[in-house]
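Annual report, structural modelling task.

Input specification for the 6-aminohexyl-uridine-C1,5'-diphosphate complex:
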Amino acid sequence: DRNTENVSSNILKDELPMCPEVPPNLGPMDISTQIKVTFESIISENLNVKSGCWKPQSCVAQQKIAIIIPFRDREQHLKVWLYYMHPFLQEQQGNYCVYVVEQTQNTTFNRAKLMNIGFMEAGKDNDFDCFIFSDVDIIPMDRRNLYRCSKNPKHMANSVDKFNFQLPYNTLFGGIVAFSKQQFLKVNGLSNMFWGWGGEDDELYNRVVAAGMKIERPAQSIAKSKMIFHLRDPGNKGTGKSFHLISKAANRMSIDGLNSLFYNITEREEHMLFTKITVQIGTPE
Ligand code: UDH
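The model returned the following structure:
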């Protein structure tokens, strides 16, 4: 009967071991950012992914991870990302869901706001422990670069081909960052005030420091990643006005961020390979 069924499935669950902290057999991989793939072909190779989510069957993952991608009009990049990242995250035995947060057309892009929205919306679906915010155009080249949260916020794009695999400056905190739920709440998310390209990542770095945390980075030898070549998108011009905002991060942190976030969801799509949340986020004041 149903009761016995429940009991036996609980026993089965209890018997699963925890997944190891470092999954076995990880190493470098070959990637080409120029591949042409279709959603159909990616789905056919990832039949166990449902609404962008997957978890290991042989062990219990230590963290529940939401991957958040700020997005607009980069479908080709998204396909390349999904093609490589679903198998990558599965090799790492991650319990994860992918969220694509799409800004509606015709307004200036605001990457930080989309990241905040991803955090809020994913948090309504599940009790995620860990949030990894990734640009759609960065693909790691080594599976040892673990998509996991750590004791401190983690910057994971510290060795990108575009910058000759070097860190261009010490406080760089862009591309891919990982925050536990508590860490992200502690900095009140990102500022909502950065419209157009640049600055929001530097401001986030200052928030982390102002909140008394340090940042971590993986060893550069395993953090190598490729950026898909592209030109600056229309609607994402740098304003050059961010310097003042960046330097005053500590003062604004408590009033500008998750607790001052307004948006309007216009669509939610449960794609096999991701959940897409389309939002109106307004325009610069
Ligand atoms: N993004 C979009 N659509 C846009 C703008 C940005 O999806 O229209 C997202 C996407 O996830 C992207 C991220 O925001 O990866 C960061 O934006 P970006 O790729 O423009 O910024 P990045 O600093 O690149 O990575 C700047 C390259 C400018 C090209 C200059 C060529 N010399």
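DSSP finds eight helices and eleven strands in the chain.
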